[in-house]
């Protein structure tokens, strides 16, 4: 028996959010065990390490919230639930605001690449919401 019909784009976005959940879990693990062999993974993004260490234990709470939101979006999108699209749009909107803030306040113009990408994802999901 075939599973529910789900547009390929929604499936890919569900996988994107599942990946985000995995990265949040990895970050929590890295923050929870400083000084371990896992610290070598911070070489990928040493600026993130410094930023997370700067906010201390709040970083684990922040990443737990982000990971939970990504997991909810992934599950909701995979199930084809309208609440999943809503959660995904909210997560993407928060990410867009963060990218814009990084560009303006920290002069990290690399963050600007997230604006059109996030905007396209939101537009796609909003269109799915309206037509679904």
Descriptors for this entry?
single chain, 132 residues, mainly alpha, 5 helices
What integer is the average pLDDT? 90
Helix vs. strand class: mainly alpha
| Tally of strands | 0
Low-confidence stretches: none
- Which outline best applies? globular
Radius of gyration: 16 Å
Q: What is the string of SSEs from the N terminus onward?
A: HHHHH
The overall number of domains is: 1
End-to-end span in angstroms? Answer: 23 Å
The helicity comes to over 70%
Q: How many helical elements?
A: 5
What summary fits the major beta sheet? none
Portion of residues in beta strands equals under 5%
What's the SSE blueprint?
Blueprint: H1 8-32, H2 46-55, H3 58-79, H4 82-105, H5 114-131
Helix pairs in contact: 1-3, 3-4, 4-5
Question: Could you walk me through the main structural features you see in this protein, from its secondary elements to its overall organization?
Answer:
The chain has one domain (8-131). It is mainly α and 132 residues long. The two termini are 23 Å apart. The model has no long low-confidence stretch (mean pLDDT 90). It is globular. Helix 4 (82-105) packs antiparallel against helix 5 (114-131). The protein has helices at residues 8-32, 46-55, 58-79, 82-105, 114-131. It is built from 5 helices and no strands. The longest helix is centred in the first third of the chain and has 25 residues, at 8-32.
